[in-house]
Known about the structure:
It is built from two helices and no strands. By secondary structure, the protein is mainly α. It has one domain (23-109). Helix 1 packs across helix 2 (58-109). The longest helix has 52 residues, at 58-109. The radius of gyration is 21 Å and the shape is elongated. The N and C termini lie far apart (63 Å).
Amino acid sequence: MGDRQTSSVSARSSELVQKPRWGFWKGLIAGVAIEVPALTAAVWGLAQLGIGNPDVSLMRILRLTTVFAGVAAVFTAGGIGRLAAYASIDGGRPRAMVVAARAHAAASAG
């Protein structure tokens, strides 16, 4: 029992850490699934409150949002996904969420 040897393997061994795969594409898909409908709902909601034309249909707003704001939102979400994937190497999922939230806040402000 006293002959046990401690393991020299650690969580951060000297081996090469594999780069995260598909980070940009995962972020892009999240942007398509979340950001474009959220922008559409916001524009439609503002129109219903009197800021804009309340007679415009939701599908027309969705098409215009996709063409004009959606392209930029989707590429921004792809870049944030890539950034979060690389941040997850150092700190796991909690670190990736913090980095992605900061990047998204900065991108939304601009």
